[in-house]
Amino acid sequence: MRFFALRMHKLGLIKKAPETLVAEIADWRFLNELKRELKA
Questions:
Q1: Alpha-carbon distance 12 to 22, whole Å?
Q2: What pLDDT, in 10s, does the model give residues 17-38?
Q3: Residues in CB range of 22: below 8 A, 6 or more apart
Q4: Which residue of 5, 8, 26, 29 has the smallest Cβ count within 10 Å?
Q5: Spatial distance between the Cα atoms of 40 and 35, rounded to a whole number of angstroms
Q6: Cα torsion at 1, 3, 5, 31 (round to 10°)?
């Protein structure tokens, strides 16, 4: 996801910084749940 965000930013297709875009769009709930289950 970050790879494509960087490329699109370079081409001028998106105005936001790639880091900001990834932080807003990424849904880490699935990974957080998985981490929680693996610890138990």
A1: 16
A2: 988 888 888 888 888 898 999 9
A3: 1, 2, 5
A4: 29
A5: 9
A6: 20
